[in-house]
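Pasting as-is:
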Amino acid sequence: MIFKILLVIVFFAIMIGVGLYSRKQANSVDGFVLGGRRVGPWLTAFAYGTSYFSAVVFIGYAGQFGWKYGLSSTWIGIGNALIGSLLAWIVLGKRTKQLTQHIDSRTMPDFFGIRFSSQNLRIVASVIVFIFLIPYTAGVYKGISTLFEMGFNISYEYCVIAMALLTAVYVILGGYKATAINDFVQGIVMLFGIVVVIMAVLNSQGGFTAAVDKLAALPADGATEAGSGGFASWFGPDPWNLLGVVILTSLGTWGLPQMVGKFYSITDESAIRRGTIISTLFAIVVAGGCYFLGGFGRLFDSPAIYNAEGKLAFDSIVPSMLNTLPDVLIALVVLLVLSASMSTLASLVLTSSSTMTLDLIYRDKKASSQEVRSGEIDDTVEGDIERRKVIVMRVLIVFFIAISLLIALNPPTFIAQLMGISWGALAGAFLAPFMLGLYWKGVTPAAVWACFIWGVGITVVNMLAGNAIANPINCGAIAMVGGFPVVWIVSLFTRKMDKETVNNMFKCFKK
């Protein structure tokens, strides 16, 4: 216990130290939100990966989908690496960097407001971001509860409060640069931790071959005969629903503001190329490893993974797998999940606070940087405005963490469902208009409105109707994919934007 406590204290000290180190770079809006747009490929790639994979994945998704699909759940991790990381960087990275810097956009709602010349789009997008990041944040908190109780015998409530306070300290102090540096440190812990944990869990089952043989001998759900081999097969017992999970968790990152925002801050095109490789390799190890580990969950069936009513508690599966590990490894696992959770939480609170500040509170002062360059206002006035914006963002970080804490202290439903609702609404509303807006001049403001209504509408209606359309995971996948025909069809029949305005925006791609 002393070793585990010392390990966590050292970890916390590093996080706060990085915040203090980065505080001088967080005095302006660009510095606080984007690291001055000068963040290198390693920090950006790790920030992308650690924001992507949190306790939601390690505890919630790996446990639930590993139980449902067996070893075939590893395809989710492979999809996350190839679609959610590799293709996302290739398709979005360069053009996002170029266009957002050209039009001086700092957030995703800001992008919609400027790209489609609509203040109302910016306001509504910022409200969607703020509302639907909250359930995701609650899922992140919920993901660490069982592990902390298992590793330290400390009440979940105290652990959650301590994690929230620490995250708030280093994000408030150092902004995005502190978050990116800490993400790098946390990413190293995640890479090392997942490899060691997989080896230890397989060793407890007699090695990889023995574990696979045991898994192949288990009967599928509802079957009376053993030995079907479904949980050890390539595509598992339910490939179609598995595909829905792959789409949600892989394609969803393309439309999430906290993920796309990483491309705003990277230094240049050469850094994007290096970041693409680093991010993909990181995802293969972490995401692939998490789902591969979860695929063996059924070998650890015990009363500990069922609730008081006798129902399976998916969020307890992975912790029960790790419960028999030596204390040193449990400490490493707690540090692993803490790293994953804090990195994602930092990204979420920074995204929410910057969105509320820049796109709601100070939206009428968006043109201030252009006015400074043209001489309409002086540098002193601009500096005062910048400092006020940073102060407001810091206050809103505390506000957002407080709201998410209230939800986390009374956490609803399973982690996977929380994430499905959050990702379905956000990516369903933003993915198609953002991606098409980077490549196609013909996207209209009406099409963006239609996609906002589509993504949020289908997610909320499905939730209120008790998942009558589809389960939250598949509904989220439908919302994302369905946004593309919505934007395309509506754009064909609605009023186009001013041609000269759009051409001026797209000039940045010809440089």
